[in-house]
Amino acid sequence: MKRYQIKEVREHQNNAGTKANADVADVASRMGFEEYLIHMKDPGSFTGTNLVNKGMRWLIRQNCYVREWAACPSAVETGSVMLLQHPFHSPQIGRERALMRLKQNGVRFICMVHDVEKLRGILYNNYYKEEFGFMMKIADVLIVHNDVMKRYFVRRGFPEDRIVVLGIFDYLMDEPEPPKLPEFSKSITVAGNLNTAKCGYIGHLPEIAPVKAILYGMGFDERMRSSNIDYRGELAPEEVPSRMTEGFGLIWDGTDIDGCQGPSGRYLRYNNPHKLSLYLASGLPVVIWSKAAEAKFVRRHHVGITVDSLRDLANLIEAVTPEEYRAMAENAIPIARKLRRGAYTEHALHEALAIAQAR
Asked: Of 36, 51, 44, nearest to 5 (Cα)?
């Protein structure tokens, strides 16, 4: 049975999504999923009013989508398997019609779920509502983040025996081995967007002193500088892992340090945060919110500590001995190796293929 995947790409780039999307596509390619490319065209600049510019750009993009999606059904072998990565983040004329034609031709769909916008609650609108409904309609197999998200889809009516649990997102790296064991220190590392308007808890990190907070990323507010804040600048994504050499990586989100609040904070109850993959692929033990879905993964593999509130962190880290920290770091090594080579995605796709081929 032939295998295909839809891959969105931007001009002059190999991918149009996040690293998580790109890594899934790379693993699928290694497994023999032939790529059908959908180009997200950059039409350049136009003269005239902004409204004209916007309209012309939309027409050029949609014209490209119409042509490429219309050609898709004839390019895909009848009765094959196709991998889709959801959600598609923009309307594309012809996409749903092409996918329905493929469905009618006996193509079975494996849908890798990256985000559920209704659960995240930040971008959710009629477009994402319809996109989610269409995915539920055509999917033969769903690959979801974890058991909590699986239960959500079962409650929404998707058959439990056609759901595969990923466990954790991979984090592909050229080097198969993580760096040397990190050093034990009473510190946390946060890598990513440091804008306090988006991640309100960042602005409260001075309150967790004496725990040191090592920060990497864009949007740092210079007014945050204090005795326990160590801002080390913005790095390219491929540079970050080699800089994580001490303490714990922090898995947190939302508006506050007293539990993960707000839409993005509450979303941790359901999703697999990509930061967890980054930290563990770097060999760094983690601190994670105790009510996060992936807290179970951290406890099961003994690769970090769970907390109800970051105000408890000083006492909890104080209780960790250097020997206990070393054990956590050593436990992270085999997971890091798997994440770096794409083992979790590969296993989930093999399981999904077996289900799809049996239908």
From this structure: 36
